[in-house]
């Protein structure tokens, strides 16, 4: 494994016509949440996109059917065909693997065949999930052999509703994509105990503090992303060059600022290049997710006139879930200032509506005038330093002792809960293993309390993770 724990993960797209069971299958797969992520209060989960884990391997899954625009499509066959094909095309552009979901009771249809043809020509890794095979071969179910006609190699009978065959499908996907294993918490060795430059499952090198900073600019449509990126690239003080992006169609810009290299990805620029994509929310959501995965720092633009709307909350929920370094950029501040809004008011509103990102610094910008735009780069550099930092074990344990002396963890069923020892086990996000007598008895409140004390003690504005391990 590498030291960077919040690494990119392959995207699996579920494609198929309405009512075959895509969303049921999505919920089955998304139910396998990453064990490493604590449930944060106030996080809005996206209904159609999720990070999850199968067999200790990290994947993302998207239900393309969840983004169907407009009226129900069943009533207009032409429109249905077009919609499903568009979704398939988008999935093909962004996903590492595509699962074509078909209905084992209805048998193959014209739409299934057409979409299969499109997918085959795209040369993506393809899997067919024949859903609603609840009993594994009664007369109500079409014989599996019918579906081999689609020409995708192995065909997987599943019952999303009864959770049958889903594991076999996921096994095949992670094997085909060679998704690396994410170590379980108990497998992470404290950094202190590793050999200098040790590699392999539990080793890895410390991050280079001067490595270029990958910065993704995200935010809902019209919030000012393109204007913001143009303002950044237009700054006379910067040296700018275009570099090939890491994903299809993306153009990243390399900026040198105060002797530091930044690679900036603009999600809006990509969207604009593709005409069909403009109409489809799926594309912008999935693109944003991919650039979040690939970035080390995410600058999420918010509109100064509306603090924390639903769309912002969903996007930020994913940033938080991925434990990415985050900067909240409150843009169009020129307009808000004219209305005499204050930064203090905005901070309070946002803290109320999006409490799970309270650790992130907030910067008030005007992409239009360029005001404070460069400050986002200064902030990114400061945050990366925190995220790549090495925390000395004695300092961590002094803190742990002081915290418990002042506020011991609440008793659980009348017995004391003790935290014995803390050591750093990873970077980006800084991750700490804590040995304790009863990991399951530590409340979410106490974990957040400890996290806040850590933030105060070390001046941290980036996400951090704790892994609680049992020691008797
Ligand atoms: P989508 O439109 O493709 O997302 O399909 P949904 O997930 O909304 O499912 C459509 C219908 O099929 C719903 O009534 C589900 O309850 C049903 N369904 C989904 N999976 C199964 C399954 O494995 N077996 C059976 N019998 N019904 C299922
Ligand atoms: P995107 O969809 O997020 O890329 O948003 P754009 O960059 O296309 O901006 C949407 C609109 O907001 C455009 O009309 C911009 O001129 C305007 N805009 C962007 N940033 C600012 C700002 O800081 N102040 C004001 N007043 N307008 C802005």
From TrEMBL:
This is GTPase Der. SMART domains: AAA (SM00382). GTP 1 binds at residues 16-23, 63-67, 131-134. Keywords: GTP-binding, Nucleotide-binding, Repeat, Ribosome biogenesis. Residues 189-201 have a biased composition (Acidic residues). Belongs to the TRAFAC class TrmE-Era-EngA-EngB-Septin-like GTPase superfamily. EngA (Der) GTPase family. Pfam families: KH_dom-like (PF14714), MMR_HSR1 (PF01926). The keyword Repeat applies. Residues 10-181, 213-388 form the EngA-type G domain. GTPase that plays an essential role in the late steps of ribosome biogenesis.
